[in-house]
Amino acid sequence: MSDDTILLGAVAYDPKVVTIWEGIRDHFRAEGVKMDFALFSNYERQVETLLRGHIDLAWNTPLAHVRVQKRTEGRSISLGMRDTDRDFKAKVVVRKDAGIRALKDLEGKVLAVGSRDSTQARILPLHFLAKEGVDVAKAKLLAFDTDLGKHGDTGTSELDVLKALHDGRAQAGTVGDLIWTLEQAAGRVDPNKVEVLYTTPGFDHCMFDAHPAADRGKCAAFQKALFAMKWEVPEHRKLLELEGLKEWMQPREEGYASLRAALTEQAYW
Questions:
Q1: Last residue of some domain: 146, 173, 199?
Q2: CA–CA separation, 50 vs 214, rounded Å?
Q3: What is the per-residue pLDDT across 50-97, written as a single tens digit (0 to 9) for each?
């Protein structure tokens, strides 16, 4: 591989990941940018590989993104995010027969939560509940640590949460807005049994990160080709739909403040 090829890391959380990145690689080449990708089984390995400089960029979850920033003392380079990565939210869903009418009612109840490395299904919902005055230690957590290392990308732990709610093992649960919406649309949420009690404040999700010593020319070329993808172009739209967005956006950092606070409070850095 020539030195002017951009090597990007991505986690293989689903078979469609190969299709997505092969398509994006073809788009980059059509834009005159040499790009290739390396797939990882988990974000911890991807982060370490990026920090060692063995890949130029990484497509990171919010947890991986803030860890890269912390490990590089804020010197890593943020390059872009999806429109759907901005103002992401999570839900606290409750059984209608559980007698939960206010957030404080969660104390003493069984609260199903997603994987411990899932920003949207565990880390931030618990953080926001604590900020709302809920003593989370008084809730009985039913944790589903499914697909650890993928930071909630598969959504499996959130499906486990919803299943536990429907079959009565839990009286409340935390899931990301996306899974909640998708499961409702698929008809797998029984509105006679469960309802939303609380929606969290917005927070930001995935980000392209570059090593602090990454070639600035490569970073600029990457951004130029990335932002050239347009929803109006049918070939681009297929890839954008697979990756769950309509437009690539410039990076911003303010949407990660709550996650940084949560990781400090929960001693989970």
A1: 199
A2: 10
A3: 999 999 999 999 999 999 999 999 999 999 999 999 999 999 999 999
CA–CA distance, 60 with 15 (Å, rounded to integer): 17
Residue 210, token pair as written in the block: 């570059």
- The C-alpha atoms of residue 195 and residue 66 are separated, in whole angstroms, by 32
H helices of 31-81, in order, are: 43-51, 62-71
Query: Rounded to 5, what percent of the chain is helix, strand, coil?
Result: 45, 20, 35
Q: Which domain holds residue 172?
A: 90-199
Strand partners, 57: 8, 210
Domain boundary pick from 199, 230, 246 = 199
Question: The domain that contains 148 carries what CATH number?
Answer: 3.40.190.10
**Tally of structural domains, the chain:** 2
Whether pTM > 0.85 for this model: the answer is: yes
